[in-house]
């Protein structure tokens, strides 16, 4: 009787997992299939295209929008954002996780409170800041707002992970004459890779997909990022929506993220669950 209950529970769990996978993956598969269709085939409900073509992908790089340049802009902005956020977050997490000082809890709450503000609430102030810094209408200028909105999450995750590191390592390093910088980057850094990979990847995804700031702070066509580029894809007339090209652009933007998540999935899980259980 117990074996039957165990089998039924396992079967139910696998069925639910399969259902979640299908619901999650099907939209992406449909986008991939649609990206290889043209003309009336776009309205065909079948998943597999009858006459697949690369025309939609070719049109992306031959059209009026410099889609290749926009990809490079997004890659540059996302990479620089991740690098700056991780460098600042790892030093801040060391202070918040390893050093005792008055007001630490209040500071952590303040960092968390920053992430509660929606983007539209700080849009006007951020616009003034971008103009004051001379970064308006420049792709690299998007690093400033992206880093500000990325830091709270990265600091909290790395602080939790930093607290779980053995204190004996830090004491031994201090006895050997290491300062805080050497302790962070030479002693703790090799142990922080799971947390760094998970937070870095999530920060990269956030910067890669961000739309509101990219639309507001950049008007030069050559400086745009891919989310804005996709929104500006138009057909020959105002009433024609090039769904094939839109789907092709969406696939190009999504595939690198899927590959990175699959490549680092173990480190992502271990990084996000770090500090959840003491032992």
Summarize the structure.
The chain has 279 residues and is mainly alpha-helical. The protein has helices at 2-35, 55-62, 67-98, 104-114, 123-132, 143-163, 167-175, 180-188, 193-209, 212-217, 226-231, 243-263, 265-272. α4 (104-114) crosses α6.
Entry keywords:
279 residues; mainly alpha; 2 domains; disordered C terminus
The unreliable regions are 275-279
Q: What is the name of the CATH architecture of the largest domain?
A: Orthogonal Bundle
Count of folded domains: 2
Largest sheet: none
The CATH topology of the largest domain is MetI-like fold
Nearest-integer average pLDDT: 85
Computed CA radius of gyration, to the nearest angstrom:
23 Å
- Spell out the helices and strands N to C: HHHHHHHHHHHHH
Number of strands: 0
Give the CATH level 1 class of the largest domain.
Mainly Alpha
> What's the total helix number?
13
Assign the structural class, choosing from mainly alpha, mainly beta, alpha/beta, alpha+beta, or little secondary structure: mainly alpha
Outline the fold blueprint.
Blueprint: H1 2-35, H2 55-62, H3 67-98, H4 104-114, H5 123-132, H6 143-163, H7 167-175, H8 180-188, H9 193-209, H10 212-217, H11 226-231, H12 243-263, H13 265-272
Helix pairs in contact: 1-12, 2-12, 3-6, 3-9, 4-6, 6-9, 9-13
Describe what this molecule looks like in 3D.
- Helices cover 69% and strands 0% of the residues.
- The protein is mainly alpha-helical.
- Helix 1 (2-35) crosses helix 12 and helix 9 crosses helix 13 (265-272).
- The model is unreliable at 275-279 (pLDDT under 50).
């Amino acid at each position: 009787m117990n074996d039957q209950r165990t089998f039924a529970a396992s079967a139910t769990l696998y069925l639910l997992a399969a259902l979640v996978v299908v619901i999650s993956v099907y939209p992406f598969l449909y986008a991939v299939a649609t990206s290889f269709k043209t003309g009336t085939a776009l309205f065909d409900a079948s998943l597999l295209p009858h006459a697949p073509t690369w025309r939609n992908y070719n049109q992306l790089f031959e059209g009026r929008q410099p889609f290749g340049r926009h990809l490079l802009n997004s890659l540059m902005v996302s990479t620089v954002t991740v690098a700056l956020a991780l460098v600042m977050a790892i030093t801040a997490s060391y202070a918040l996780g390893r050093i005792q000082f008055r007001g630490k809890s209040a500071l952590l709450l303040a960092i968390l409170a920053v992430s509660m503000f929606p983007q539209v609430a700080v849009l006007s102030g951020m616009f003034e800041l971008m103009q004051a810094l001379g970064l308006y209408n420049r792709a690299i200028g998007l690093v400033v707002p992206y880093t500000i909105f990325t830091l709270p999450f990265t600091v909290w995750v790395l602080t939790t992970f930093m607290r779980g590191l053995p204190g004996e390592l830090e004491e031994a390093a201090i006895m050997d004459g290491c300062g805080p910088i050497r302790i962070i980057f030479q002693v703790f850094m090799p142990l922080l890779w799971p947390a760094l990979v998970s937070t870095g990847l999530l920060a990269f995804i956030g910067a890669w997909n961000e739309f509101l700031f990219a639309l507001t702070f950049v008007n030069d066509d050559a400086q745009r990022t891919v989310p804005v580029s996709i929104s500006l894809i138009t057909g020959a007339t105002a009433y024609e929506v090039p769904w094939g090209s839109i789907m092709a652009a969406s696939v190009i933007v999504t595939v690198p993220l899927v590959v990175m998540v699959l490549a680092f999935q173990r480190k992502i899980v271990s990084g996000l669950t770090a500090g959840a259980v003491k032992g």
